[in-house]
Each structure stands twice: as structure tokens, then as C-alpha cells.
Amino acid sequence: MASEKRFATRLRSFLTPVSADVRSRRLRGGGKSLVLSVLAAGFACVATGCKDGPMYALKHANPYFTMRQWADDEKIGITDHQRREELQSLAESMPSLTPDRQQYWSSHLQQIFENDESPEMRRLAVLAAGKSSDASVLKLIEQGLSDDVIKVRMEACRALGNRTEDEAARLLASTIGSSQDKDVRHAAIAALAQHPGQIAADSLRLALQDRDPATQSLVIGSLRRSTGKDFGNDPETWIAALEGKQVDEKPSGGLGSFF
């Protein structure tokens, strides 16, 4: 496909993030006001915990700068924006690739994940891996669960939801039990909805012990999809049913199915 060919052509540039020298030339080309803007945005990122660098804050503060700077950057070499755009395109086309082509890209996605400093590039590498049927990418996705950046960890959970292996369900169950970040735990809970079977049922049953109503509601929604059953909205009722006790299901289309 065209997107795969473009990605292959630019692979060397993708595996080599934009150098500090190129970044320096881009900043000098923009003049003193541009440098001051970048520095100001950088301080804003430090204050707010931004993980994607000063350019992220700057493009939101001044969208015109983003478009103008991309045009200037392309004269020097491949831009961060182009790298992200091409990897996004590869991720979207991954399901349509033949098994041997998916396997071919697995090692390259691994290199991007291990070597790229951009959290967004690592997230996109995990996204692409999650859309591949190649079993070897499970290692990459598992590494994503330990990434320093939350959006990468959440993407890894979503990617595991797309996998059919029991190991994917086990990794999600482990994340639910060990993650200290609620957003990551919720992403793992939501992903387990796509995994029927005992691993998902046992993990979600334990997650129902969380007293947070939002978490309980999410768990029950995942249980409905995972088990194909509906025991209403009461966590204790679900726990009883999952433990094998006699519990009546809600009629199809009843109020319980709306929550």
C-alpha cells in the first residue's frame, strides 16, 4: 500500500529522531522572538508536566506558528510532524497488510519504541503493534505498560484489548491489580471487555471491590461485554453470580442494560 511504501522510504529518518543540530538551525531561522516563544513554552511545559516538549505548548498557543514552522522545517529535513503522520498512517493500514509484511514491520516498531524520545512516536508504535496479528509484537506492547508517559501506558492497554492471546488478558489483569494510576487501570478494565474467559472474569470480579462508583460502573460494563450476561448494576450481585451463586439475569432490554 502507498502508506507502507512511504513509511519504508523514510524508515531511516524515522529511526533517527530529529537531531539537536537541526533543531538548533530551525530555532535560529525563526529569529529572536521565536526563540523567546519557545523558551516561554518550555517553562510552561515544566510547570504543567508536559511530556511532548516545548513545541507542543507553542503550537497550541499559536496555531499559525505550527503551519509556518512545518513549511520551514521541511526545507531542512523530515519533521516530527511528518514522522508522526507517517507512523499513524502505517498503524491504520496495518490490519490490511499480509502476515509477512506485518512481521516485517514488527522489528522496526520495536526499534522506534526503544529508541525514540518522543512519547507520541512510542504511543503510535504501540498503536500499530496492537493492530498487527504478529504474535511477536506482544513484547513491545508489554513494554508499553511500563513507559514513563501515561498516554503510552493507556495505549498499551487498548492494544492488548485488540489481541486474542490469553497472555494479553493476563497482562491487562496484572495492570488492573498493580497500576497506581486510575486512568491506566480504567483503560485496562475497558480493554478486558474484549476478552471472554475466566482470566477476564476473575480480574473484573476483584476490580468490583473498588469502592469508586465510576470504577464499579466501568467494570460492570466490561463484564456485560465479556460474559454476555447482565446481572444489573449492583456490584454485590455480580460478585455473587461470578462466584457461581444462583442469580437471575436481567431481561434483555431491561433498565440494567442502559447503565
Automatic annotation (TrEMBL):
Pfam families: HEAT_2 (PF13646). Signal peptide: none annotated. Coiled coil: none annotated. SMART domains: EZ_HEAT. It comes from the Bacteria. InterPro entries: ARM-like, ARM-type_fold, PBS_lyase_HEAT. This is HEAT repeat protein. It comes from Aporhodopirellula rubra.
